[in-house]
Amino acid sequence: MIISVTFSKPSPQCTGEFGRNYLRIKIKSAGKSSDEMYFAEFFTETQVFHERLNVEELDAFIDKHGGKTFKNCVIRTENEEITLLANRHGKITRLSKKLIPQKNCAESSDTNIEKNNYGTALSAVKNASATSCRTKSGFCNNRAKNYILQEGEPIPFLVLLGIMTDEGKVIASKYAKFRQINRFLEFVDDILPRVLGKIHVSSERPLRIADFGCGKSYLTFAVYHFLRNIKKINAEIIGLDLKKDVIEFCTKTAKQLDFSGLKFDTGNIENYTYADLPDIVITLHACDTATDFALEYAVKNCCTAILSVPCCQHEVNSQLDKNAARRKRTDARTETQVFAPLLKYGIIKERFSALLTDTLRAQYLESSGYSVQLLEFIDMEHTPKNILIRAVKDDSDNIELKEKSLKEAGVLTDALFLEPALKRLLKF
Q: How far is it, in rounded angstroms, from Cα 292 to Cα 92?
């Protein structure tokens, strides 16, 4: 199985092949249990583009571009690393190196070097060793994960959403989604004691949750199933999204499952109002400032907990571009000079902007009386949008901490002349 492929050193025909001047391409497997899906990142000087590939598409891609469109191609399997290098005459050199999958496993073999007019990169992979790494206790990397939702028994909502077969087997191409769902339920389970310690849930008073930008609602259905059927907690959840067809699908699915406490509605996060205020606010990949409107809603309505996984974050990046001239006029300021190297390269500036956005969100939530953590939602190999903001309302009114967090945020925004959405919305 191919774990990753990296293409670098583009040839002159690269722009003609792709329509963009890609500097490198990185492709990673979605994981052992989802070996039919790969995630590709295409890097230009200033941007990153994402695409998904199946096995056949990956094979064709390697065959077409390995050692050709890109002069350097590194293919990594479980047991071997294969490097294809092309010289200016198109002759390809193949370097093959055996790998040690894990400490104390099988010994590595010597590096083999083969020079020839290698036809395709794909054939290099097909020649890789299929030997598995074993220890006295069994396979090195084949340990079962103790998920909250277990494979083997059919779970109705997962079957209806196309993640699991009628026999309870997770569909290979959906395994990343299955892992994502379980990971999110772990976060929910972790905050439950603190939330339930603040709210007296009963048969008359349910735990109320709002999912802003719910989409197809994989997580919404999962949270409801987890709370009602596993934890036996009286819970009501409402999912909100702008797409009417998506809401109709989710409503139909909820009725099929007899999830009477799960409702869906069409609306905008900015101006939607609930009859009963939620205790927990969830947002998964709400685009750009939509996340900020969801966080503002949670803060202003004193919601007990927030679980938010931001998506694309353009606002800060665009403000950095607009304020470039202003920063140059004040580059004598030490704080401005400190950030200069981070703003020099487009791809670094883009990633810095995303990290800065979530950092400021965390600071503003702390200034609003929340205990905040920034956590890895799921492995980077599954999605680059992998930071989860977890915030729980703090009972102690720590004025000193609130002021400190707001001051720290102010240092960043003043140095870079930023006015982020959440700051404006919360009127800091």
A: 51
- For the chain, the average pLDDT equals 82
pTM over the 0.70 mark: no
- The torsion angles phi and psi of 192, rounded to 5 degrees, stand at -55, -45
Residue 164 has pLDDT above 70, yes or no: yes
Nearby residues of 305 by Cβ (< 8 Å), 6 or more positions away: 191, 194, 195, 279, 280, 281, 390, 391, 392, 393
Judge contact between 43 and 22, C-beta under 8 A: yes
Phi, psi for 146 (deg, rounded to 5) = -85, 80
Q: Which of 322, 312, 317 is nearest to 292 (CA)?
A: 312
Number of helices (H), then strands (E), belonging to the chain: the values are 14, 17
Q: Average the pLDDT over 87-109 and give the result.
A: 64
Give pLDDT, residue 238: 94
Partners of residue 265 on adjacent β-strands: 240
The domains found in the chain, sorted by start residue, are: 2-135 (no CATH), 172-425 (3.40.50.150)
Cα separation, 370 vs 363, in Å, equals 9
3-state secondary structure 193-246: HHHHHHCCCCCCCCEEEEEECCCCCHHHHHHHHHHHHHCCCCEEEEEEECCHHH
Long-range contacts of 243-250 (CB under 8 A, 24+ apart): 243/215, 246/214, 246/215, 246/216, 246/217, 249/216, 250/214, 250/216, 250/217, 250/220
pLDDT tens profile 317-371: 888 888 776 666 665 555 667 888 888 888 888 889 889 999 999 999 999 999 9
From the number of C-beta atoms within 10 Å of its C-beta (0-12, 13-18, 19+), residue 107 rates as exposed
Closest among 378, 397, 398, 376 to 387, alpha carbons compared: 376
Q: Please check whether residue 282 is in contact with residue 212, taking contact to mean a CB–CB distance below 8 angstroms.
A: yes
Please tell me the predicted confidence (pLDDT) of residue 51: 84
Spell out the SS3 assignment of 68-114.
Answer: CCEEEEEEEECCEEEEEEECCCCCEEEEEEECCCCCCCCCCCCCEEE
Amino acid at 368: S
pLDDT digits (tens, 9 = 90+) for 39-75: 888 888 777 788 888 888 888 898 888 888 898 899 9
